[in-house]
Every structure is written in structure tokens, then in C-alpha cells.
Amino acid sequence: MTIRVTVWGENVHERENKIVAGVYPDGMHNCIAAALNTHDDIRATSVTLQDPEHGLTQARLAETDVLIWWGHAAHGDVEDAIVDRVCDAVWGGMGIIFLHSAHFAKPFKRLMGAPCNLTWREAGERERLWVTSRHHPIAAGLPDSFELEHEEMYGEPFGVPEPLETVFISWFQGGEVFRSGLTYKRGAGNVFYFRPGHETYPTYHDANVRRVIANGVRWAFNPEARIGDPNDAPNVPVEAAPEPITARGPRLHEDGEEGFR
Amino acid sequence: MTIRVTVWGENVHERENKIVAGVYPDGMHNCIAAALNTHDDIRATSVTLQDPEHGLTQARLAETDVLIWWGHAAHGDVEDAIVDRVCDAVWGGMGIIFLHSAHFAKPFKRLMGAPCNLTWREAGERERLWVTSRHHPIAAGLPDSFELEHEEMYGEPFGVPEPLETVFISWFQGGEVFRSGLTYKRGAGNVFYFRPGHETYPTYHDANVRRVIANGVRWAFNPEARIGDPNDAPNVPVEAAPEPITARGPRLHEDGEEGFR
Amino acid sequence: MTIRVTVWGENVHERENKIVAGVYPDGMHNCIAAALNTHDDIRATSVTLQDPEHGLTQARLAETDVLIWWGHAAHGDVEDAIVDRVCDAVWGGMGIIFLHSAHFAKPFKRLMGAPCNLTWREAGERERLWVTSRHHPIAAGLPDSFELEHEEMYGEPFGVPEPLETVFISWFQGGEVFRSGLTYKRGAGNVFYFRPGHETYPTYHDANVRRVIANGVRWAFNPEARIGDPNDAPNVPVEAAPEPITARGPRLHEDGEEGFR
Amino acid sequence: MTIRVTVWGENVHERENKIVAGVYPDGMHNCIAAALNTHDDIRATSVTLQDPEHGLTQARLAETDVLIWWGHAAHGDVEDAIVDRVCDAVWGGMGIIFLHSAHFAKPFKRLMGAPCNLTWREAGERERLWVTSRHHPIAAGLPDSFELEHEEMYGEPFGVPEPLETVFISWFQGGEVFRSGLTYKRGAGNVFYFRPGHETYPTYHDANVRRVIANGVRWAFNPEARIGDPNDAPNVPVEAAPEPITARGPRLHEDGEEGFR
Question: What is the total count of domains within chain B?
């Protein structure tokens, strides 16, 4: 079975900043998609903020098994209606991976329900990621730790909810630590946050980083059919109760009526 | 130390529906607040949807240690700006308790990042709540189970994230089950969801329910000072790094600059 | 890839009790293994308490991807050395599924670190299992709930640690509830507890129960190579530290020395 | 209310090693107890491995609200019967705090159900602990990070189950990270693991470390009465079922009979 991945790229710094354009001449999203396409079981394409509906039409999401999100400079330009649509897709079973500065992306903040803040420093310092959950599928094939010689620092406290599992923790040369790989479930959808990926460094060309993202895609993928309306809150009429009961006492609602929202 | 509680009441059915007015002549919010005020360590007052700014001014939230939320018919009337303010207060350390139909309240959905849906039936059936975490402070003084003779049914699957702990699970006469007591942390704030409380039944007059809510207040309360800006994501300049480092490599940001949002 | 499953059966009541022998003429373990063998990706065999080393030799465990454990009347007859061996295999990456009365099996108690107690009643009452985590792979292909017309009751509080995820909760006719599907990770191994399966009822002939067990096998399976010594706590000599440091201050240990245990 | 703390000390290196004796002339256990006794709400005393029953008689445990455990060189000398007794007390509601090398203490391994292994290096390097859960009561009054100039390194992967919450993560000068503050619940008892405390360094004289331990005591303390038999698994006879039912189908057990173990 082939996993259909859509890589969402903000695509701002790649066009406006010479350094970033030099590292990612085809854009970060296309670099990430190309890395994924080296795997037979994954077929990745990309869309960007500048596309109509940011590239995330209902049709596109319906054909996306796992969405990958990278954004930084233009979080505020993402339309709320698209954010709602993405969250609905996740709640219905689509997997989603948030990379690096997407910790402040609207859909990540919406799915976490938390401030998602951190401390940061752009000094090209060394980062070393340690695996904290042995044999976790997202860490498959990795050593116990791996290094990125130049990265932006993100520091604790990281304002996210306690995850299902902490998969990676980063050590930074300047003295900070950070929970760099975190798993969540929201509705029927699997959510993975992965820290590395500052746009001025060649992080998405790194073999270990690419492996983590491919592993993350497989972990986040759910083969079950998307839930039609993941927000549905159906009334169960008395006569459809699993056990026979008789209605009693005062009531606000008629049988089969819609609930309040 | 006295815990300052604000009970937020939607206050719609109490005024518009004779049955509800009969059960809660002073409004549900005042019934809940009065029950809490029988405890020496708690001082509870109430506000309603109809108050200016829904009663939740910045000043009011600053003086609230734990906010209790009951809403049902008018979730959509709660202004988004107030929801943001409530979430900020929670992220800064305010405790919050959501009761019953508040599973679809805007601040609950915002804090959960999930659909928060369920199945339901209004048949006045029997509910029995079982304690699933022995000696949890929210269950202090309770037997292993207690009954509510007449309640609305809420059924699984309940579309919320996996909690820190599941404290209660309900059995319903009609054949369903429901995770009725769930704890979360969002930012620095403790969050408790407690299921019972359909407005046509005298649930908030029940001694065990009152005990759970008082216990929940004590559990959710955090004596530390509220965090000033719970969304702050400070830059750590190179010269302020805990370990001495030298900046290297290309940069997007100047020292001490604001990050993107 | 084929998943190699070993079903461990206590094999006591099947031989000593006419009712159980009638329901499971080939033993419960063989009934479970046969059900799994209808799946192309699973190859299941069985061993029993009465086999040498209870059938769980080092060689056997090395060839087992997922171990399934059913025991009830003879928990105390399982040798502690075999329990240690099973736990080591789990910690090294073997998946394990505990069924029904195995809540009191030695390896389950050892892996949980908790009393694992519950309340119980043998009255052939109706059990209805509800899915609490939509699209969880262990619930794949199941409806939101399914029934077992005759089962033993297990009731909360269930003395186990908070799980990674609660997948099923049971409703019982007599008024109790129970967390019937729970996931854990211990060391590198995935652990799944699944409640149904009292030996006097035909539970393991039920299509939904069989589906859960097959799903559970796929969920618990980890394709990575087993960790050689899952208890190893290696010293990292100063000269092998990821960052160059110089030893300083007083010391108890010589370089490369074994730590205390 | 005064919290009664018992500090359990292995008391080996303090007597046999001049360096340790110099840092802790009264023993580590007495240093820790003295620090706790500066708080009005805590009354701490100590016992050691060399005491009869290791100082942990049934009477002593019954009068202990929170037990603190430090051991290193003599884990194997702790009798299994005492370990069982300690676990029973925890399951019944006693709080317990494990310090540093107690990651390999028998009761910790028993309560975790996991290998509890790690990597280590004794080089007197710098450790910096970061708070990862803002406003957690165990971090009350602490800055976002604090340093210990000389400590033994413990590195990930740390072979413990995913905790309820990760409260601290350590950065080490030599390049490793470690989850240094972890909370669990086992049975009715709260469990806290806190990393620092190698015996050749003056860690338990550090003001921040002392604060964490005092906070941990308050967090782990449960004022409810200890559960009499935390392993009890009572039969609920048919006539005592919460809902009226009639027994049906075949049975193994007589009413009120003991279950198998």
C-alpha cells in the first residue's frame, strides 16, 4: 500500500532570502517530498501557502494520508477556514507531522490547545538528538543519538501537553534541552512533532532527519477510511438503546433532535 | 488559604424552561457556588453569559483561582475574544473545571484540540460512576461507586485526547459507558472534565456530585502566581546562553529580535 | 512479513473441567492459535504450562514476535526464572498480549508493577465493549461496540497503571464497568491487556474477539531486531563522551568499570 | 497536618569511603532528613539497610506517609520480603521518592516493571536541570533551570515506562540528556523519581535540590487512610450486584469463593 503524503510549505524564505534559496533551491517542501519519494511505500507531493486555498482543498485533503507542515514567517497568513478544514481531516483520521517552527503554526496550536511556546537562539550551534523510547517505530534504524552540527536552539519549557510518548530529546551546545519528538492523537488522527529544520541550515538534507520523517509518515498513517463527520454527536433514541429502557422524568429534547452546540 | 472560585453559568434554561427553573430556582451557577461555599477553604461566586464580557473581565479572571464552566444551549454566543482570554488565564496557571454539556463549550474544545463529541440520550436513566484511580484526590471521601437515579446518557467514543488520568467511568442503564472524570494540563493550568449535570435533573443537589466538584477545585488550584505572558517565546541571545558559545553560520534574526508568529 | 506468535496456555481447566473441555476440546491456546492462523500475515503455535520450561525456552522466545498469555488456576505454578526470561524478552522488543484472568499472571504483575486487582462475578451476564479510541489499530474493523452474551464480570477499580491509551471499556449487565483494552510499553516491548475470555464461555470463538486479538498481534509486533541485553547499563568513559570533557572531582569508579546493581 | 517522612539510606559508602564520609559525615539519609525538617509541615527521620528488617517494619511503614529511597552499592542486599512490603505500602497509598542510583533499587524496578537502565559516567561534569512542566507542584519556587557544578552523568535512553508527567530534563556537559524528574502512580501510591545525588558530590546540600525533594514529599503525600489490603480482589455475589441479575450458564466458582491467584 502506498502512503500519500502532502508536504505543505510556507515557501517564503526560500524565495526572499538568498541563504535559504541556496540551501533549498527547489524550496524546503520539495526537498522533503523528494526525500520521501526515495521510499517505495510513500508517494509525496507538495503544496504551498501561495496556492489557492493554500493548496489544501477538500479534495486534496481527501487524497492525503499524511500531511507534513513547515511554516515560520507567515503563520498569520494561513486562513482560519483552512485551519478548521485541516483539523477536521486530522480528527477524521489523517496523520499530520509538524516540523520545527510549525510549533507556532495555527493548526498545531489548535490541535494542542496549549501555548506551544519555547525559548530560542539562532547561533548555528550543535544539536544532538537522543532516542528516549527504544524501538519506537519513529526511531527505527537510528542510533541512540545523532548530531546536527548547525541548528537553531529551541529550549524548555516547551508549552505543549504531555505527549503519548516522548521519542527524542535534544541536547544543545549552549546549554539547553528540548523534547524534540512528541506523539499525540487528536480525534482519530495521529500527530507527530519533530523539532529540527531551521531554514538557513541543510537539516532536511541530513540522512537521519530524513529517516525520522519517513518513519514518522509510516507511524502517522492510518489505513482505515476517513470518518465522514468527525464532529457528529448523534442522539440515540430510547428505542435504539442497547438495553431496553423506558424514558422517564422531564425532558428538554424531542427524539432524534439535534443537540446544542 | 482560601481558593477563589468563579462559577460561570450560561443561565438560559433556568430562565426559559419551567422544569429547570423549578430544580434550580436561583440558577445552576448559584446552586453550585452555594455548595462550594459550605467549605471553609473555598469562596465561590458566580457570573453569567449575560453579564458584560460574560462576566469574565481581565480583572475577574485575575482574581479567580479556579473557573467552573456550565453551558449548553448557547455555546455559540460566547465571544471568541473571551474564549482567548480564558485560555490565556488557564495557560498562565488558573484551574478550570468543565461540567457536563460544556464538552462542547468553546473554551473546552479550544483547550482539548479535539472534536469532543459523544453520543447522548435524554431518558432519565440511571447512571453509576465508578472510581478508576484509587485515592485520587478528586475521588477523596467517595465510595468505589455512586449512583444518580436520573441522568442524561453520554456515550463513548468520547472525542477527547487521552487524559493524564481517568478518574471516573460511568455505567448507564441503557447500555453505554463514558469516561466521566478526566484530568489534563494545558500550559500551567489544570483542567478537569466532570460529566454529570443535565439541567432537568437535581444532579447538583447530590452530595457525591458536590463532593467531586469541591475535590476538583482543590485539585485544580495552583497557589503559584499566574504567569504574566503565558505565550511568551523569548529569544536567548548568544551572550546569555547558559554555556559559552560563539555564533556561527548564516542567520535570519538579529539578537534579541522577536520571533515570527 | 509473517508475524510469529506463540500462544501460552495454562491448560488446566480444559483437561479437568468437563464444561471447559466441551467449549475448547483442543484447549483454549489451540483455539486462539487456530483463529490467528486464518490470517496470512500471522503464524501461530502454542505451548503450555506443562511443557518443559513451560514451553518458553530461550530459543522459543527468540523465535517469538508476539507472546499471548492465558492463565487462571495455576498462576503460582509458573517458575520465577521463566517469568524473568519473559520480561527480558519483552524489554528487548517482544510484543505480549495478556488475556482475561492473566491480569493476575506473574509476568503481567511484574510488568505492571501494580496490584492488578479488580472485582469479579461469574454469572454469565452480558458484556458490551465500547471503543474509546477511534481508529486505534487494535479496534480496526470493529463497530463502536460489540456484545458478548455470556461473560464473567470484571469491575473497577482495576489496579493497573494509567495506560498509554484506553482502547475499550466494558459495560456489564450487573452494573459494573471495566477498562477492557489497555496498551503499555515496557522497555522496547509493546504490551496489550484484553479482558474477555472466561473459560466456561465460547468467547474465543467470537468473531469480534478474534479480530481484536489479531489486531493486537499486529499492533504489538515490532520488526526491529531484539535488543541483546535489555538490562545493560553501559559506562561511557570520559574519552568517549560525545562532547570533550575532562574528568574532575572525586570518583568511586574506574573507567569502564561495571556499575552497582 | 504534618507529613511523616522516612528516609531510607543504604549507608555503605558513607562508612567505607573517606570522600563520601567527608561530604556526608552523618550519612546521606540524615542530611536529607535534616533538610526536610527545616519545613514546618514535614517531620523526617531515617533508617538504614543495616537496621533490623532494613528499618522497614510493618509498624514503621504504617507510620510513614512518604518514603525516600537512596541506594547504590548494595541493591542486592535488600531482602525480597521487604521489597514486597514496601510495594504493598505504596499500592495502599504511601508516597515514595527514589533518588539517583535508586533507579536500580529493587522496589523501583518492581514498581516500574521495566529494566530502568541508562548510561553513566563519573566525571564531575556540570548538570543543568530544566523544568518541563510549568507550575508543576514539584517545581514550585524554582527557576526555569538550575545547575549542579559536579555530578555523575546519567544518559538516555532511560528504560522506564512513559511517566504521568516529565517534570525535569537534565543537560550534561559531556553531551547527554536525561529525564531527571518523572511522576508515576502505582496502585493508590504516588511515585517520584529524581536523578541528582551521586555520593561523592555535595548534591544534597544544594538549595534547589533540597527544594525539589521537599516539594516532592508534598506532591507524593496522600492524606487518605491507607488501603487495608491493596491486593484484594473481591467476589461480588450475584445478589449483591448493583443491578438485579440472575446467574445463568456454566460456572467454575461458588458464590463468595476466593478467586485464583
Answer: 1
pLDDT digits (tens, 9 = 90+) for C175-233: 999 999 999 999 999 999 999 999 999 999 999 999 999 999 999 999 999 999 999 99
- Taking an 8 Å cut-off on Cβ atoms, the answer to whether C242 and A187 are in contact is no
C-alpha cell at A200: 538557513
Helix (H) or strand (E) holding B28, with range, is: helix B28-36
CA distance C249 to chain D (A): 5
Chain B nearest C-alpha distance from A34 (Å): 24
Please report, for the domain that includes residue C191, its CATH number.
Answer: 3.40.50.880
Name the residue type at position A146: F
Rounded percentage of chain D residues whose pLDDT exceeds 70: 100
Q: Residue C256 falls within a domain, yes or no?
A: no
Note whether D124 contacts C247, CB cutoff 8 Å: yes
**What's the pLDDT score for residue B1?**
80
Burial A194-228 (b: 16+ CB within 10 A, else e): bbbbbbbbebbebebbbbbbbbbbbbbbbeeebbe
Domain with B205, as residue range(s), is 3-116+180-220
Distance between CA atoms of B218 and B224, rounded to whole angstroms? 14
Mean pLDDT of chain B: 96
- Predicted-complex ipTM score: 0.96
Which residues of chain C lie closer than 8 angstroms to D253, CB-CB? Answer: 122
Peptide bond into D163 cis (omega under 30): no
Compare CB distances from A157 to D128, D144, D155 and report the shortest one's residue. Answer: D144
Q: How far is Cα A230 from Cα D257, in angstroms, rounded to an integer?
A: 46
**Pick the residue with more confidence: C134 or C261?**
C134
In DSSP notation, C125-152 reads EEEEEEE-STT-GGGTT--SEEEEEEEE
Residues A58-103 have pLDDT tens digits of 999 999 999 999 999 999 999 999 999 999 999 999 999 999 999 9
Mutate to test the interface with B, among A245, A253, A254, A258 (most CBs of B within 10 A): A245
Q: Check: CB of residue D87 under 8 Å from CB of residue D114.
A: no
| pLDDT at res. C260 | 82
Report the interhelical angle of C207-220 vs C28-36 (nearest 10°): 70
Confidence check: pLDDT of B57 > 90:
yes
A48 in a domain, yes or no? yes
Does pTM top 0.95 for this prediction? yes
Rounded distance between C-alpha atoms, residue B185 and residue B136, angstroms = 16
- Candidates A94, A127, A132, A134: best to mutate against C (most CBs of C within 10 A) is A134
Residue A255: per-residue pLDDT: 72
The shortest C-alpha distance from C165 to chain A (Å) reads 8
CA–CA min distance B132, chain D (Å): 10
- Residue in A119, A242, A252 closest to B17 by CB: A252
Task: Tell me if C58 is assigned to some domain.
Answer: yes
Residue D32 CA neighbour count, 13 Å, CB half = 31
- All partners of chain C with 3 or more CB pairs under 8 angstroms: A, B, D
* H-helix or E-strand spanning residue B126: strand B119-131
Distance from CA of D232 to the nearest CA of A (A): 30
Q: Looking at the domain assignment, is residue B213 inside a domain? A: yes
Cβ contacts of B145 on chain D, cutoff 8 Å: 242
What's the grid cell of residue A109? Answer: 496550536
Predicted pLDDT at C115: 98
Q: What element of type H or E holds A193?
A: strand A189-194
Whether residue B133 and residue D187 make contact (CB cut-off 8 A), yes or no, is no
pLDDT for the residue C180: 98
Which cell goes with A5?
503524503
Q: Decide if B179 and C169 are in contact by the 8 Å CB cutoff.
A: yes
Helices (H) and strands (E) in chain B, counts: 7, 9
Question: Angle at the Cα of B56 (from B55 to B62), degrees rounded to 5?
Answer: 130
